[in-house]
Amino acid sequence: xxxxxxxxxxxxxxxxxxxxxxxxxxxxxxxxxxxxxxxxxxxxxxxxxxxxxxxxxxxxxxxxxxxxxxxxxxxxxxxxxxxxxxxxxxxxxxxxxxxxxxxxxxxxxxxxxxxxxxxxxxxxxxxxxxxxxxxxxxxxxxxxxxxxxxxxxxxxxxxxxxxxxxxxxxxxxxxxxxxxxxxxxxxxxxxxxxxxxxxxx
Length: 201
What we know:
The chain has 201 residues and is of the alpha/beta class. The protein is 42% helix and 18% strand. α1 packs parallel to α2.
């Protein structure tokens, strides 16, 4: 499986409606602490936009809703992985991405036979308080060897100036959140990411 080298992560269907039409081909909808009804509506809106623009939608965490809404890709963090019914996920034909931050989590992820593995944070990140120090590019190279032939996603503190480094050290895709959503010009920054990842597309 091949992932687009630019992996956008946003917390609403509104962001997807705003940015996917610019040419985004891989997006994760990551929403926390909302009712199932709200989540279902957000997933449906996101799915419709992604279908129109040939963009792969990945739903974070909510694997039951992902199945119910006919989506085809779910991403799980480690806590969600521990509680998820992997048999049901596979039976539904979902592709699966899993977050990792250390060796134990990598072992747990690989045991689940995912379709890709994410490592982070590569650099310091302001998105959320992390229990892990920045992993750095050396760890990214080590993960590359461990997860081959699976795609490897780098996440955490990435910006266009760091793109070359993460790809040179083995990442297949660079995931980004705040570099775009907190940017003064999210549309312009999205277009810059698309341009600067073109060489790996």
